[in-house]
């Protein structure tokens, strides 16, 4: 078990005490009050020793550099190249001991403990984490590929990324599991002045897994945050992706692709808040809902009064593949300033019959034509993925879900 310092234990005690009075996160058009978020199973630390677990061997090999694998709260494999010299990459225990002076000021600072009942639950049962600190002026051109694997118990993982001024960093995360059990994960990202972080994530957790995922970022003056999210879980999921643009000239782009199938419910919120002038935020959501599934996109752009010159744009589109599937795209613009640009587009519908007819007239079966149209719908997102191995895996997961 991780030995937590006194100040963290105090935060856990406070989290336990405020939890009953806090509300669940707001998940518009999805009823989550009866979801068993608080059904927690005790986690047993992994026994792997600098080896790649077989469950994720299809994602990485020993020939791949810049890989970190955490299994049930422990770093079980790490292979870093010289590009990461000077970058701190530490598990939760190391962050709280060797790097406490750097870690403590940022931990649960971007995402506060009392945000909602599930963030308090996260703090109260914290059992895994990774701290990444990119020093000032450090430019890392290669991507860090991090895999979080759950093989037993409930996972309460916390990722903290701090990119100091003028730094550049590329981060790819994968959440996978082989068993049922709740997953409650929080990611905090701090992008300081003139820094840039490329953040890519792919979640593919089993149908027996209930997921709460909060990714929250703060971007300072002239910082850039580029986020690509693949919401490919098989189980019920609440995903909140929140960005605060706190410095003049800050820029954020969040692109999400999601596929809901079976009886699954996925509720995905992307919220970019403009808290400084001349900031720019772009939201793009594309999704598929099939079988009896429910997919909900909540896109929110908030421009506060006085934040002139800001630009808030969003687009959410969903495709329904069955009569019993449901999809919702909820665009929200909250604009308290006149001198801004803002716009949104939203659409939910079935596959275009005219497109199907055209493709079938060229010799394709109806099913082949449907698959081709779906790929065309999702391809703009897939093309944005810069890591070829992750891109290939992404395409494979999408193919499995579409053809299931």
Automatic annotation (TrEMBL):
- Biological-process GO terms, alphabetical: iron-sulfur cluster assembly
Instruction: List the gene name.
Output: sufD
Location of the SUF system FeS cluster assembly SufBD core domain: 151-377
Native species:
Turicibacter sanguinis
Residues of the signal peptide: none
User: One Pfam family this chain carries?
Assistant: SufBD_N
Q: Which family does it belong to?
A: Belongs to the iron-sulfur cluster assembly SufBD family.
Query: Which positions fall inside the SUF system FeS cluster assembly SufBD N-terminal domain?
Result: 84-146
**Classification via SUPFAM superfamilies:** Stabilizer of iron transporter SufD
Q: Which NCBIfam families match?
A: sufD
List the PANTHER family. FES CLUSTER ASSEMBLY PROTEIN SUF, UPF0051 PROTEIN ABCI8, CHLOROPLASTIC-RELATED
Q: What is this protein called?
A: Fe-S cluster assembly protein SufD
């Amino acid at each position: 078990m991780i030995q937590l310092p006194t100040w963290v234990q105090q935060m856990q005690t406070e989290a336990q005490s405020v939890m009953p009075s806090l509300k669940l996160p707001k998940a518009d058009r999805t009823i989550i009050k009866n979801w068993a978020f608080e059904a927690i199973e005790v986690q047993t630390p992994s026994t792997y020793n600098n080896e790649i677990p077989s469950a994720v061997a299809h994602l990485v090999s020993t020939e791949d550099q810049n890989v970190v694998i955490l299994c049930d709260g422990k770093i079980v494999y790490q292979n870093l190249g010289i590009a990461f010299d000077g970058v701190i990459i530490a598990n939760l225990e190391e962050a709280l001991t060797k790097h406490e002076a750097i870690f403590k000021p940022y931990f649960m600072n971007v995402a506060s403990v009392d945000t909602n009942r599930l963030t308090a639950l996260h703090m109260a049962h914290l059992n895994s984490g990774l701290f990444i600190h990119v020093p000032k002026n450090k430019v890392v051109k290669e991507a860090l590929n991090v895999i979080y694997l759950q093989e037993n118990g409930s996972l309460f993982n916390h990722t903290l990324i701090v990119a100091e001024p003028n730094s550049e960093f590329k981060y790819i995360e994968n959440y996978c599991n082989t068993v049922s059990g709740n997953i409650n994960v929080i990611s905090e990202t701090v992008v300081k002045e003139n820094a840039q972080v490329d953040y890519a994530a792919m979640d593919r957790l089993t149908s027996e897994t209930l997921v709460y995922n909060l990714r929250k970022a703060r971007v300072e003056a002239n910082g850039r945050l580029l986020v690509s999210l693949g919401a490919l879980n098989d189980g019920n999921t609440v995903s909140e992706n929140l960005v605060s643009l706190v410095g003049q000239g800050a820029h954020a782009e969040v692109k999400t692709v999601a596929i809901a199938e079976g009886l699954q419910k996925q509720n995905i919120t992307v919220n970019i808040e403009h808290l400084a002038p001349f900031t720019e935020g772009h939201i793009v959501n594309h999704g598929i809902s099939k079988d009896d599934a429910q997919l909900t996109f909540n896109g929110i752009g908030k421009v506060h009064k006085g934040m002139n010159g800001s630009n808030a744009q969003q687009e959410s589109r969903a495709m329904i593949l069955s009569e019993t599937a449901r999809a919702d795209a909820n665009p929200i613009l909250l604009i308290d300033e006149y001198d801004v640009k803002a716009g949104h587009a939203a659409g939910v519908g079935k596959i275009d019959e005219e497109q199907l007819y055209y493709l079938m007239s060229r010799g394709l079966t109806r099913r082949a034509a449907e698959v081709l149209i779906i790929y065309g719908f999702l391809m703009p997102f897939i093309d944005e993925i810069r890591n070829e191995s992750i891109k290939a895996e992404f395409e494979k997961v999408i193919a499995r879900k579409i053809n299931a």
